[in-house]
Each structure stands twice: as structure tokens, then as C-alpha cells.
Model the fold of this input.
Amino acid sequence: MSEFNINVDGPVMWAEIDRPEANNAINYAVMDGLEQAVTRLEQDEELRVFVLTATGDKAFAAGGDLKEFHTIRSEEEARTMSQKMITLLRRLTELPCITIACLNGDAYGGGVEIALAFDIRITAAHARLGLTQGRFYLPPGWGGLTRLVNIVGESTALLWLSSHKLIDARTAMEYRLVDDVIPSDRILDSTKKLAHDIAGKSDRRMIRAYKDGASKAKGPDIGAAIGEEVKTFSGFWANEEHFRRVDAFIAGKANKRAGN
Done:
């Protein structure tokens, strides 16, 4: 069974992370699926809106898959993985389509970093968000730190990062981290309605004009700042303290399943 599903409904592409047993954590299969979606969106002139969500209502994406990525042991390997996602998310931001992250549930770590690369973020009322990589002795590594600072400001970003803070949906909207909060039982229907409404009012040429103008209005290019994130992230990844914390987390989950 695929861990990343893609469906096209006229001018709207709808993609779903389908790993409920892992709280929809991001692994290489999900990264590959997202890359396939982005490539198709780049090439198909009929597509005007892209929506990403996930299976169930518990989690949008619980960060990177610790078990799968824990095989990465060197700084160079960490940099390669980080750069792969950074490049993919940059392509996502440059699409001549409106992109919508539909947060059907909690988003942690890399899940928030992915959502921050979307043009519009809609979240279910029960969802919580947090860039919590610090629990595993890591800073954000997929551009999330730079994007977070650009949205909420430096002091708030530092508070949330250093405290591993989880924020509720209403607080996320207050700080413009998300654009709308929808009752949990209506999140998917509301997002589909929005996607088709947008697709029916703008073609790709107009959307490109909107996005190019909005990008220029942000001021200095954020690419260099995100590039620095890659260097810092990969250095921390190769630190023994990171490995120790992930090992402890995985062992704790194993003991909990065993009833110890």
C-alpha cells in the first residue's frame, strides 16, 4: 500500500500522507511521493491548486520518521537528506499553483516545516503545532526556522523553539502561523470547497503573478538563511547527544509497547 496518495479532481490535486501507524511521520517514501506530486504540478498546466493533508484526524505529520532517519550517522549524510527536502520545498514554493496545507491533526517538527512552505495553512480546531526537534538535540533542518521567524518574529520564534512549545490552533492563527481554523469534522470538506473556489477564479498565469509579487514583497532573499540552516542542522545531527536522545525515545516507546 502506498504511503503517499495523489488524486486529481479537475484543476485540483489532492495528496495525502498515509502512514497512520506512524502518526504520518515523514520518511523517504513520503519525500519521494511529495517530489512526484511537485514534478507533476510543475508540468501540468491544467492544475491550479495543490492540497496536502494526511490520513485520520490524529496527526498531519509527526515530524521525520526517527527509526528510518536514525540510520543517518554522519554530518555529510544529514546534509544530503536536509538539502533534498530544502530543494523540494523550494520547488513547492515556486509552483505556479496555490498550495494549501490542510492540517487534519497535530504537526510536529518537520511536519510544521513542510506546512510552513505552503501558501495557505488551514488547521482543524483540535490540532497542535510545534517545532519540537530540540527534544532530540536538533534545530530545524528543512527551512522551518527561517520561515517561522519571517511569520511570527524573532522573539516568538526563539521562545517556541527553545521551550519546545506546542501551540493550539487558535494561538497558531493569532500569530498568523495558520490562516484559518475549522471545526475538526468539517476540515476536509471546507478545504476542498476553498481549493475549487480558488481554482475556478484564477489561471496559472494569474497565480504566478500573485506569487511572484508576494515573494518580492517579502524583502531580502531567504535562500541564504535557509542554506545556513542546512549547515547547522547537519552538524547537530552528527552529535552524539542527538543519537543518545533518539535512542532513549525509541527505547521508551518499545518498553511502553511491551508493557514495562
About this structure: The first strand starts at residue 4 and ends at 9. Residues 75-93 form the longest helix (19 residues).
